[in-house]
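Help needed: design a sequence for this.
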């Protein structure tokens, strides 16, 4: 029998307003008259053609829709491709090809590793062991998770780390006693994991591709080689300072509702004992993932492996999971395609801004404003620009568009090139505002513990904290460690 009254859901005016705001921003920018050229300190002009203006228009619509989640984030990504093609910003073959960029497939393979760890039970085993060590206090659980996440990013890509740690956090959260309901503890656990994955990934060249690309770029411009251990020497104190500061940050903004989870350690031991010995699938999964991590890490030291893209190596693990029957077709259908599409769109808008010259135009306009500023203000302005851009486009591209301009202006202000390189690399690793800034952000979002708006909201004070740490590094920490900050007078 049908019920007499059905309650009509209230119309979501807020959603409509932000959806139309994105469309309005697109229309205003795309159809506006030509904008003036950007002119660098050498007098070179960087015009903003119709396609580049269109790229900025798409960028504004996508950013608005992503932050306010007017449609699922993966659908906003599809809109990025559609607008590029419909408004003749880039051809369809180019705009949509970026949706299957190697970086997107790397994220796909990383998520598969997370699925395997969950399905085989390795995740639960690791979670129970970890809880046995850190105990029942929720503050220590935060710290334990953050330290393990950051440490792992020293030896493997932060995307793969996030995909591996994510199911472990689900297992830990299941013992919190609130079901799947969003809580402050859940928000702090998942957002915190994403943030510290970024903080840890700056310490070595193995944490992300951005380091190796930036160093290659730096060598081209300044003709100075920066070694693997030299980078780690300067980055280690900054990365780990951010890990512990972020722990303090989340203990304030996402203070867990429960101070401790009584009986957690005993429960974890009991559940671990129930699991018995390692199964065939667990051993196989660990061997496959371990092998892939070793080969990817060896690329930094073995010249023969350097030519092989890391995406092909990590995708071998995806194939082997099916060859060894650890995964089946049903598991393939469980992939969170919303997250994959999110990154596909992020790659497309990133390349669009880069290839049309829109990103370069923005970089030149921003940095030229500071060409007569105090050297410290100039360094911080570069760091701020890279930090903002890395939330929207690939961090590699954010560095690639700002480093050349910054390194041209730097000598006039007596700034050493090293400090620009390292300050840029620090902030490029920590996009705290948007999910598209880094894969760990999007992986954490899949938990359902927070909205894109909440992520953005907490990202603002976290980004202020990051800028403060960069300022301290430039003024105090790096000079003590021996990094040249300013050029000698007349040099």
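Sure. Designed sequence:
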């Amino acid at each position: 029998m049908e019920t007499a009254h059905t309650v009509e859901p209230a119309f979501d005016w807020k959603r409509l307003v932000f959806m139309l705001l994105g469309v309005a921003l697109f229309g205003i920018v795309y159809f506006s008259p030509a904008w003036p050229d950007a002119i660098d300190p050498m007098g070179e002009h960087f015009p903003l053609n119709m396609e580049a203006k269109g790229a900025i228009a798409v960028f504004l619509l996508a950013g608005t829709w992503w932050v306010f989640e007017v449609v699922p984030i993966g659908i906003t990504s599809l809109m990025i491709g559609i607008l590029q093609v419909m408004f003749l910003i880039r051809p369809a073959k180019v705009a949509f090809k970026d949706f299957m960029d190697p970086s997107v497939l790397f994220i796909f393979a990383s998520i598969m590793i997370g699925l395997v760890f969950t399905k085989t039970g390795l995740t639960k085993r690791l979670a129970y062991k970890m809880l046995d060590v850190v105990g029942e206090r929720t503050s220590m659980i935060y710290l334990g998770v953050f330290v393990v996440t950051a440490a792992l990013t020293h030896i493997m890509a932060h995307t793969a780390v996030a995909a591996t740690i994510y199911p472990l956090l689900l297992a830990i959260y299941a013992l919190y006693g609130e079901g799947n309901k969003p809580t402050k503890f859940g928000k702090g656990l998942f957002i915190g994991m994403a943030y510290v994955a970024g903080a840890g990934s700056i310490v070595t060249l193995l944490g992300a591709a951005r380091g190796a690309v930036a160093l290659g770029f730096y060598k081209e411009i300044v003709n100075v080689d920066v070694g693997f251990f030299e980078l780690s020497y300067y980055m280690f104190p900054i990365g780990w300072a951010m890990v512990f500061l972020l722990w303090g940050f989340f203990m304030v903004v996402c203070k867990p509702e429960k101070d401790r989870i009584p009986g957690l350690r005993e429960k974890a031991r009991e559940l671990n004992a129930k699991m018995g010995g390692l199964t065939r699938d667990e051993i196989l999964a660990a061997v496959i993932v371990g092998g892939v991590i070793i080969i990817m890490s060896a690329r930094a030291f073995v010249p023969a492996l350097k030519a092989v893209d890391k995406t092909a190596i990590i995708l071998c693990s995806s194939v082997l999971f099916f060859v060894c029957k650890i995964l089946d077709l049903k598991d393939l259908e469980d992939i969170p395609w919303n997250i994959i599409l999110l990154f596909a769109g992020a790659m497309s808008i990133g390349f669009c801004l880069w290839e049309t010259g829109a990103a370069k135009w923005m970089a030149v306009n921003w940095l030229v404003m500071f060409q007569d500023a105090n050297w410290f203000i100039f360094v911080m302005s570069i760091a701020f620009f890279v930090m903002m851009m890395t939330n929207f486009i690939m961090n590699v591209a954010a560095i690639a568009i700002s480093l050349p301009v910054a390194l041209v202006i730097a000598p006039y202000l007596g700034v050493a090139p090293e400090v620009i390189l390292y300050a840029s690399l620090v902030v490029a690793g920590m996009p705290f505002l948007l999910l598209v800034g880094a894969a760990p952000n999007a992986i954490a979002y899949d938990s359902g513990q927070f909205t894109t708006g909440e992520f953005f909201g907490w990202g603002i004070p976290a980004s202020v904290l990051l800028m403060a740490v960069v300022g301290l590094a430039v003024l105090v920490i790096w000079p003590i460690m021996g990094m040249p900050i300013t050029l000698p007078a007349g040099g």
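The mean pLDDT is 87.
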